[in-house]
Amino acid sequence: MLVRKVEPTGAALIALGGWGRSPSHVANFFLTIACIVAFAFGIRQVGFAVLTFATVAILQWRLGQPLWRSLLYAALVAILFQIVFATLMRVPLPPGILQGLIY
Amino acid sequence: MESFIAAAAILTDPWVLAVILGSCALGLFVGSMPGLTAAMAIALLVPVTLYMEPIPALAMVVSVSCMAIFAGDIPSALLRIPGTLASAAYTDEAYAMSQKGEAELALGASVVFSGIGGIIGTLVLVFAAPELARIAIKFSSFEYFWLVCLGLSCAVMVGGGAVVKSLIALMLGLIAGMVGMDNPAAFPRFAFGNVNLNAGIELIAAMVGLFAVSETLRMVTSVDAQKRPILKPKGRILAGQWRLTKRYPLQWLSGSGIGVVIGALPGAGADIAAWVSYAVAKRFSRTPELFGKGHPEGLVSAGAANNAAVSGTWIPALIFGIPGDAITAIVIGILYLKGLNPGPLIFVQQPVEMMSLFIMFFAANILMIPLGVLAIKLSVHILRVPRLVLMPIILIFCIVGAYSITNNPFSILVMLCFGVVGFVMMENDFPVAPAILGIVLGPMLEQNFFNSMIKADGNFLGFLTRPVSLWLGLLTMAIWGWMIIAPLLRSRRRAKRQNG
Fold first, then answer.
1. What is the pTM of this model?
2. How many CB atoms lie within 10 A of CB B156?
3. Closest Cβ–Cβ partner in B221, B419, B491 for A19
């Protein structure tokens, strides 16, 4: 009763935005989540650099960039993050399948 | 004086200067990009600060936050889209000025009065914070308990949005803050048998999720906005600013004052300060009818207020460990990581770091004027950078940030959960600040409650027996009463109006 008095509009507290009606946007949403889950479960086995490359390439391509540009951009981002964080700042990012190649 | 010399020596180190300049550039870029917020930039910087000395890390945070809050004005004036929430209050005003051919005057006023507001806010921080700390040393768990209650209540009352939504956000934060074994009984709570949750929710991972992951999810789901033409500032940016300074002294002074006071209230940051000071400027203006039509008076007041609030938010954060806004909530995490535990003794135990912080605030607000002018000149190019190109980089930053704190992939999952929660909250206009305050202050509230109960031998009246504690308690209860009574009075008035 108190809540109704305080919020008398009667509108639902939680609703999906306009994006929920667009299959393309829903796919983008779940793809982004899937990429983060892939990091959570695969960062140690697959490695940070490989997952970064794959995530950036997939998301860029999905968001409308040409495939070759997505791949190039993804490679640049993966190398940059590896150099800045793993090499210069010594953040222990797992090498995964690239063990021995980048460490 | 010794701390000043030591702090100045550290800050003039070429590496620290490079960090400051780089952070200023980052802050200006993030603030100029609609959709990227200052809090998000700070959250993304956490992994970078982890591997830095405390002073460069603080310098980075201060530079980014000051610059980003100002730079939010650039797309406001040129695109009618606020770069950060702190610029939303006067977006229409600034854009109307640009449409009248006064884009330079609007942007010049933004940069100059942001700088002035920031400097006034810093002066208050420098003089008020150590004095407040002297008083706070005498506080016991009773006073801290009420102070935290007061902070949480303020966050709900002034945090923006409906009270019910703020309350729900606060409850979510408090529940998240209860997870783990860090409670008086040392019993795993809401851990569901998962050992990763025994240590509680990782604060930084939660913050990164709430601010940055939620924003990336919003980017990938935003229905493509209609592209607006970017208005170009052509003339001299600083021309006419001296005239405005002389014409509206009360406006920038009151704006700065409002900014510091509102900034110091937990949960109410630069955005609320800007809205309030804009409303106050309009209320007391001789020409209120000109507001919203390209009149610089509101812009002068609110522009000063939002940057003054940036310094104001640090006052409760440094002295009590109570964040003034979302940015300082992350800052508190960084302070703990750097061994600079917030509290009234911080000025005694870490004098050089605190002096560096003050100098940094002054330097950032002074640097804001030349660098801000440069950013305005380059704004047409900055605003053309597509956000979707930045999105994957932000996402990878988030993942590095969450992972590098604990080196445990579970933090990435925590970040994701909070990202989805933050996204749902943003989509439905739930304020995020009360949730963050709940996570940060929940454990503090519980700890002080139990300590007080032990001291008072289980007697609840113990909370009201010390004078300061009594006043804080009465103030808190008055706020609770007001939060219940005000909407009831409003609805009764509305019903009366409808009936008669």
1. 0.80
2. 26
3. B221
